[in-house]
Write a structure and sequence with these properties.
It is built from six helices and 16 strands. The chain has 289 residues and is an alpha/beta fold.
């Protein structure tokens, strides 16, 4: 014996992990590996969980073509279904692809009807502005009441967003512009899916940073400014990427977060301290986290 042993040393006591009557994992918690390990330690092989919500996704527009097909000069590749399906997967929802509908009320209505039959919620993109071919709200209202409840939100991007209910199921009508669709999903669809999953609270990670330059925004609209956060000399900085360009996807890939500018501000000043909501890895000295 080389060292004296203290009484109780290296001995696990019964109940030291979880006391009798103590809540092991609170309802509304997204189960992660450490939660599963604790549940297993309690001898439980099964627990009750929320079923993954099914979310049907429909893109609309004559100008859209599937990836892999050859577009005409007046067409573009459809990207929003990939974007939105990935965001649903990220949250734990099950996306259902409804494909692309042309700018035709009957076709849009038929695909929406199919989505409402198969899914717990429906997301559409495109056809929600004020042009002659923006037919999605009309198609929704043909399906039942109450139909469209809100059309147009004081935010930028994603101002044409509409919210509807048909057959007691929510329909989120997002802009056809990819960046606007992303932020419309972030503000309206993400909280909806989390609620359907029973998740009590799961906000985006937030860091405090200083703006590297001034950014201008319009009064009267809540503006989501894409920024790139990085660390320098132990301090975090936020470089504005864009508050405009709702169709420019690269403003998202060059950013890793966003700053929310309230409706009563005409922008933010250089050096101002801001709260950044992160949607991608954070740049720090020596690599990313």
């Amino acid at each position: 014996v080389w060292t004296a042993v203290t009484p109780g040393e290296n001995v696990s006591k019964r109940g030291e992990d979880i006391a009798k009557g103590e809540v092991a994992v609170k309802a509304g918690t997204r189960l992660k590996p450490h939660h599963l390990a604790l549940i297993s330690a309690l001898g439980k092989s099964e627990v009750k969980v929320f079923e993954k919500p099914k979310v049907a996704i429909l893109a609309t527009g004559n100008e859209l073509v599937e990836v892999g097909e050859k577009p005409r000069e007046d067409q573009i590749y459809e990207t929003n279904r990939v974007l939105l399906a990935s965001l649903c997967h990220e949250l734990g929802a099950q996306p259902i692809d409804l494909g692309i509908a042309k700018d035709n009320v009957e076709e849009i209505s038929e695909k929406l009807k199919h989505g409402l039959e198969k899914a717990d919620a429906v997301i559409t993109t495109g056809g929600t502005s004020v042009g002659a071919s923006d037919l999605v709200p009309t198609a929704i209202n043909r399906l039942g009441e109450p139909g469209v409840l809100i059309h147009g939100v004081a935010m930028r991007p994603a101002m044409p967003t509409a919210l509807a209910i048909v057959n007691d199921k929510p329909i989120i009508v997002l802009s056809g512009n990819p960046v606007a669709a992303f932020f419309g999903f972030e503000v309206f669809t993400r909280p909806l899916i989390l609620k359907m999953l029973g998740v009590e609270n799961e906000p985006r990670p937030v860091v405090t940073a200083r703006l590297t330059r001034r950014t201008s925004t319009a009064l009267g609209r809540k503006t989501f400014v894409r920024v790139r956060v990085f660390q320098q000399n132990g301090e975090f900085f936020a470089e504005p990427i864009s508050a405009r360009g709702s169709g420019i996807i690269s403003t998202l890939t060059r950013a890793n977060g966003y700053v929310i500018v309230p409706e009563n501000r005409e922008g933010l000043e250089e050096g101002e301290t801001v709260q950044v909501h992160l949607f991608d890895s954070l740049e720090v000295s020596g690599g990313n986290v």
